[in-house]
Every structure is written in C-alpha cells, then in structure tokens.
C-alpha cells in the first residue's frame, strides 16, 4: 500500500493526497478493488476502485496510474482489463470513472480503445487541486461508463456527426509553457461541451483530429 501510494504520488507530480496508504488499506479490507501492477518485483502501476450502490451493479474507478517512465507501453490497458475481469467475477456490469476532457490521449484511450461512453460533464468537479498535473487549472472532468459485457460501440458514421469539440494535442505541455492559453482551452471546451449537451446531443465518440463527436441520441 505504501509503495502504491508513493507511485501514484509520482504520477500526479508529488501530490501527497493522491491516494493515502491507510485509505487504500481500508478500501481493500472492505472488499474493494486495490491492485498493483508489477514488473518483476517492482510496482509499475496501481489502480483503486470502489463499489457503487448495490442496485446499480457498478463500480467507480477513482484512480489508475502507471509509472511516468513506462507510460504509453500498454500497461494502463492491462490494468483496465484486469479491473474488468475482477468486476465481472463479482457480477459488476459497469465501471465508471472521470478524466480531464482536455487530455486527448486519455479521451482516445477511454472512448476509442476501451469503448466507454460519456455520461456527464462535471465543471470543476474536485475544486482546486494542488498537484504537478492539475495545479493552476480548474478540475473539469468527463464522467464515462464502461459496459463490461458489451463490445465497444463503433465510431459514429460521419453523416451522423452534428457537432465536434476540438481539444489541444498536448494540454500538459501547454499548461507548462502557456498557462493562459491552457485556461482559454478549458473555458472554450467547457462552454461548447455543455452547450451541445443542453441541446440534447450526446458524445458518440472521439476523433484524434476533430475531437469529441456529438450525435443525436
């Protein structure tokens, strides 16, 4: 637990509150999902999720991280697939989680690779966050739900796409070198996203060039 807490702290740029070891111990002891991913004897990833209301047969994945030196090597996918198998073995049908809508690689992974679907846009969901990844920005998040027994939904045909919301290619770098530009992206994406949802549209997928693809339900 201590090793996992330290790893997640490193992933989030020194955030001491990312996931304290005592909290992980309590979650694991009460039957929730607390898992470390190892390369030999070295922990290289960790993931924590907890159950939702019993009637939902669902689980919320609060945090998943891979060592900064080993990201983009398929380890995040390995963690999510383990999480899926663990959940299905316990009659859980859906897993939800949040991610920053400005992080294009996460949108690609969550929507295109895993096939999760957007259920909500949550402005400044966690309030100010004092870590190396989020410091100085508002914590807008997109909530997604992953139907574990269903195949990933195909990308919507081009003719059904009513609107798109673009995101920067690399918001993490933009935050470091041009914080004002990053903040402008935050407002632009938030307003467009919420506007399309208010008009009754839903997110049908994500395109690496166009961004979020909105369709009529």
Explain what you see.
With 217 residues, the chain is an alpha+beta fold. The protein has helices spanning 2-11, 21-29, 75-88, 104-113, 171-177, 179-198, and strands at 33-39, 42-51, 58-66, 94-99, 117-122, 141-147, 161-165, 202-207, 211-215. It has six helices and nine strands; from the N terminus they run ααβββαβαβββααββ. The strands form two sheets. A six-stranded mixed sheet has the order 1-2-3-4-6-5, with helices on both faces. The protein has a three-stranded antiparallel sheet with strand order 7-9-8. Helix 3 links the parallel strand 3 (58-66) and strand 4. Helix 5 packs across helix 6 (179-198). The mean pLDDT is 92.
Q: Care to give the gist of this entry?
A:
By secondary structure, the protein is α+β, with helices and mostly antiparallel strands.
Observed structural traits:
6-stranded mixed beta sheet; 217 residues; 6 helices; 3-stranded antiparallel beta sheet; 28% strand; 32% helix; alpha+beta
Which percent range fits the helix content? 25-40%
Number of helices: 6
Rg over alpha carbons? 17 Å
Strand content: 25-35%
- Which runs of at least 5 residues are low in confidence (pLDDT < 50)? none
Q: Tell me the span between the first and last alpha carbons.
A: 43 Å
Strand order of the largest sheet: 1-2-3-4-6-5
List the helices and strands and how they pair.
Elements: H1 2-11, H2 21-29, E1 33-39, E2 42-51, E3 58-66, H3 75-88, E4 94-99, H4 104-113, E5 117-122, E6 141-147, E7 161-165, H5 171-177, H6 179-198, E8 202-207, E9 211-215
Parallel strand pairs: 3-4
Antiparallel strand pairs: 1-2, 2-3, 4-6, 5-6, 7-9, 8-9
Helix pairs in contact: 5-6
């Amino acid at each position: 637990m201590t090793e996992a807490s330290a790893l997640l702290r490193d992933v989030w740029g020194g955030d001491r509150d990312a996931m304290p070891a005592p909290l992980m111990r309590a979650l694991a002891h009460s039957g929730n999902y607390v898992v470390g991913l190892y390369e030999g004897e070295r922990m290289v990833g960790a993931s924590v999720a907890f159950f939702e209301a019993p009637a939902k047969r669902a689980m919320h994945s609060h945090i998943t991280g891979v060592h900064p030196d080993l990201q983009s090597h398929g380890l995040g996918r390995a963690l999510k697939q383990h999480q899926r198998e663990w959940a299905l073995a316990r009659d859980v049908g859906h897993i939800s989680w949040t991610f920053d809508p400005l992080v294009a690689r996460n949108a690609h992974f969550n929507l295109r690779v895993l096939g999760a679907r957007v259920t909500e846009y949550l402005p400044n969901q966690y309030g100010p966050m004092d870590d190396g990844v989020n410091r100085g920005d508002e914590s807008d998040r997109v909530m997604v739900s992953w139907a574990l027994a269903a195949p990933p939904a195909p990308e919507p045909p081009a003719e059904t796409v009513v609107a798109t919301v673009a995101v920067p290619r690399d918001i993490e770098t933009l935050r470091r070198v041009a914080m004002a530009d990053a903040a402008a992206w935050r407002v632009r994406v938030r307003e467009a996203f919420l506007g399309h949802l208010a008009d009754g549209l839903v997110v049908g997928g994500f395109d690496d060039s166009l961004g979020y693809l909105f369709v009529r339900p």
